[in-house]
Amino acid sequence: MRILLAVEPADFRKGIDGLAPRCRQRLKADPWSGAMFVFSNKRRKALKILVYDGQGFWLCQKRLSQGRFPGWPPATDSTKLCLAWNWVQANGHPRDMVCRGLLLGLPRAGLIELPAPRFVPPNPLAVRAQPQPMLICPGITWSAR
Questions:
Q1: Is the pLDDT of residue 143 over 80?
Q2: Which of 6, 36, 38, 77 has an alpha carbon 20 to 30 Å from 14's alpha carbon atom?
Q3: Alpha carbon 2 to its chain's center
């Protein structure tokens, strides 16, 4: 059985109908394939597992009363930077917000170049057709003075 782990946190208000499209969009996998899809919330205190067994979907949830799930892969470049530089809080978690601020300031200063955004939403106004000129009064010649 294939197990696919979603690195980015999921919105835990979503159920089967909200997580199945996420499998296709983010993980690029078919939710009806029989693979196990594992999602975590932002604080890494809960997991949701989505599986299709041939008859329907199973959605299982586990929430820890204390602690967090260890070893979850980091989701952002700022988290990776914090771990590489060993910028951690007293509890051992990365100082992600400090690194995000640093990453936002470095390209503005011209010191680093960040990768291009993964998805740029199309601007519908940029491809809009220009209106055709309209003839207001036929037979009348206008002259500019």
A1: no
A2: 77
A3: 22
Handedness of CA 76, 77, 80, 86 (dihedral sign): negative
3-state helix, strand, coil in the chain (%, to 5): 25, 15, 60
Indicate the pTM of the whole model. 0.52
CB atoms within 10 A of CB 37: 26
**Dist CA 125 CA 4 (whole Å):** 38
The partner residues of 109 in beta bridges, in order of sequence, read none
C-beta of residue 46 within 8 angstroms of C-beta of residue 112: no
Amino acid occupying residue 91: N
Q: Determine the residue type at 109.
A: A
23-62 tens-digit pLDDT: 888 777 899 998 999 998 888 899 999 999 999 999 999 9
Distance, CA of 6 to CA of 25 (rounded, Å) = 11
Nearest to 7 by CA among 46, 32, 38: 38
- Per DSSP, what are the bridge partners of residue 47? 40, 62
DSSP code for 32: G
